[in-house]
Structures are given as structure tokens and as C-alpha cells.
């Protein structure tokens, strides 16, 4: 928009009074020696009258900076800004989708052409509804144009250079509520809602799993095709799904029963194949575990060799020839190699320990489950027999009641045959009652036995716990009573077993080594004993086993870096020697 400036001196004087640098339309300074400090409103930074922005509205101004409005010149009128010290004009709440503004305070001689000339700078005008009472309604094409029009609220308008009251007025611009704006806004909201629903539906369809393929209807031709597919391993799953769908649909009848039986028989023939596949996979898994263990053992051997190299290099013969930095590197490498070796060794020992624990746990659980399942099965069988006898007794009672009713209806003397039948039924009823009482007594006896066995089991568990506590107390007493200053020779000359706790340990270790014919290391033995008592010391166990030379013996196994000390049980051989 181009704003004509008829008097540059007046323009510069007005801007000087506002404390702004006087500039022309193109931005050139009108007064080159202007000092902003001499203005009336100091502290306001210089502002260009024609700021870049949307039409006559300047860009957003920070909230801490006061808004300065300038004079607007049009062809037929002039707009003078309001006093900046006054509060901003009040406006109503903005209606949704508002594109219409109310303009009041128009001059009495103002025409629609002047209104268009003033407000077309804010944007495209769709319609103007002017009233005879100096106000009008203006509808714009877009919503943001309403904000531009509100900028003109509070301006004083003057038509030409006339000072007549009919040619002047103070504009008041406010939001207006129009049905057309509300209708367009609702249409837009509905369109956005449709787009959102469509987007969500497309997202759900994208994330929804694909539908299964449709299953064909049953016919002899399709039945033969499915029967051939059932024999093929690659198409077995698809054929079984089709067969299941046909059976659930109710396609089985007398005519097609043989065909369905043959297909079920074909499906049953795949059980052996599946079992063989499972066994093959389990075998592969075991082989992979064994390979992993072997590879881990080989890695450990190589780690031992590397650690041996580091230890040999740390000896004085070779250590003195290395520099200080080389010695530091060798010591760091040796420490790292030992840590990695210990980690791998713990992992291998953990795998072996888990395998042995799984085997022992499975055996114990198997025996317990078999005993309990046998008792439970007996109790269930007695309960079923009791129920069946009760049902038979109810049936006999019903027959007797029916016979009595028939006898009452006939109103005649009883025949000898009926009397015999009644006697037989009564005798059978008495026998059934006696048998039922016997079965109930046996059932109660079995239940009492089952409860007794459970109580015995709880008592045994409590006894085991008490025995463990006694072992701990005996061990503490034994440790406190031992004198650590006695020499080793005196302890060897005395009795090899000093207490009941040591006797228990000898029995447990003998049982453990008896199931390990190739021997076990002292760490492996102590890891097993720690499951019973965490306070068992490795040195005490090794000292006890070394005292019993006829019961346990120590052997060296392995070659080179894998050399290992293993303890074996030799009690049967020592019995012959002693």
C-alpha cells in the first residue's frame, strides 16, 4: 500500500514528537541531524513507518514494547491514530471461524465506497452490509484479515479536509457473529473430522493382521485334494486347517464319514514324524551344548597356557631384562587374562553343576510324584466306585417305588411272583447298602492313610530341619573347642574323626564321590556341601579327607596346564586293607 505524504515537514514533526527517527516512504532520513534523545517520548527505539508485514499491520511487537500507530492517508479520507496512553479498545469474545467484523462510529456522510477504500487494505472483502445508523458489517475472505481490521479500532476518520461533524467519526471495530461464518467453520470441522477418521481407519487397516484365506466348501473333489495334501509334509498345515473347518461346519455325515476317517488317519500318521523331528532337534541341541562345552574347555586350556607364559615371564630370570613399561604391560595383561579365565571357568562349572542338580532334582521329584499320584489315583477310584453304587441304589429305590405305586393302583391281591420280585429287590437293596457302607469305610480309611502319610512327610521335613540346626550347633561347638596352637602331627596321631559333625560330613562326601567314579575337585565337593550348610570351610574339608587315607585318596589328572587334583572314594578298597 502506498501512503501519500503531502507535507514532509509535518510528517517529520509528528514523528519527532513520538521519539522516532523521521523517515520517508522509501526509508530515507528526512532530518539527517535528528537526535532521538530530544523527542517527547524517550526510550522508544526508532521504527520504520512502512514496516514489512501483512498490508498495513506491522509484524508482531514484543509485549514489553509499546505499540505506536501512525497516520494513514487514503484517497478520500485520513485516519488519525488514537492516544497511545489510552487503554486498548474492548472487544467481545471471538466466535469460532469469525470472518465478519462490526464497524461503528462511521461519519454520517460516509459511503460504501469510502468503507471499501479503508478496509480493502486488510484483505479481500466478500460483502458489506451498511446501516443508516452509522455502522456496518464487513465479511472478509479469510479469518486472519479480521485481525488486520481490528488494528484500525480507535482511529479517528476524517473525510477529505473537512472539519464538519458529519464528515468525522471514531471507528470502533469488533468481532461479529454471522451464521455464514459459523456454517463454514462447522463444515470445515466436519471435513477435518472425516479426514481424521479416514486416517485412523487407514492406520488400523495397515496394522490389522491379514485375514486368513477362505476355506472351500466340502466336495468329493476337494476331499481328494485335501487327502493328497495331508500326505505332503510341506502342505500338511494348510490341509489340517481345511479339515478342521469342515468338521466344525458339520460336513461329516454317513456318506462322507469314511472319507473323513481316512483324512483323520492320514493326520494321525504325522505324529510319528513330528516326534522324530522333535527328537532330532533335541539331539542337535545336546550336540550343540556338548560342542559349546568342548570349545569352552579348549578356550580355558589356551587361557591357562597364556597365563603360564605370563607367569614364566614374571620370573626373575626374564623379568630383569624387560623395561619398566614392558613389565607394566605384562602385569596388566596377566591380570586381565586371569580374570577372563576365572569367568570362563565359573561358567563351565556352573553348566556342569546345573546339569547334575537337574538330574538329582528330577529323580527326587519323580519318586515323590509317583507315591502321591498312586494314593490320589486310589482315592479317586474309590470315590468313583462310591458314586456309581449310590446311583445304582437310587435306581433300585425308584424301581421299588414304581412297583408300590402300580400295586396301589391295581387294588388287588399281590401275586406270588410280585412278592418274590419285591423280596429279591429288597435283598439286592440290602446287599447294595452293605456294600456301599463297606466302600465308604474303605474310602475313609484310605483318606486317613493319605492324611497320615502327609503328616509323616511333614514330620520328616521338620526332623531334617532340626538335624541341620543340630549340625550347625555341633559345628560351632567343635570350632570353639578346637585349639589352633596344636601341631599337625598331634592331630594326625589322634583319632581321625573328632565329632558327630565330621562323621556326617564323611558320610555325605562318601555318597557324593560314590556317584562320581572319576573323582571331583575340592571346589566341586565344597559347592555341593554349601547347599547344606554355608558355613563349611574348604580347608577343614580338605584336612578331614587327608586324615582318612583309607577312605579318600587324591590323584592328579590332566596334562600340562589342565593338570587338576581330584579326590576319589576308596572306602571299599580300604576296608580290605584295614
What does this structure look like?
This protein is an alpha+beta fold and 578 residues long. Among the domains are: 72-187, RRM (RNA recognition motif) domain (Alpha-Beta Plaits), CATH 3.30.70; 220-275; 291-357; 500-575, Arc Repressor Mutant, subunit A (Orthogonal Bundle). It has helices at residues 8-17, 112-119, 144-150, 179-207, 220-231, 236-249, 257-268, 270-313, 316-319, 324-410, 416-481, 488-493, 500-514, 522-529, 538-547, 571-577, and strands spanning 72-73, 77-80, 100-104, 125-130, 135-140, 156-159, 168-170, 172-175, 552-557, 564-569. Strand 1 (72-73) and strand 2 (77-80) form a beta hairpin. The longest helix has 87 residues, at 324-410. The model is unreliable at 1-7, 30-57 and 483-493 (pLDDT under 50). One of its GO terms (biological process) is ultradian rhythm. Its cofactor is Cu cation. InterPro entries: ENOX, ENOX1/2_dom, ENOX_RRM, Nucleotide-bd_a/b_plait_sf, RBD_domain_sf, RRM_dom.
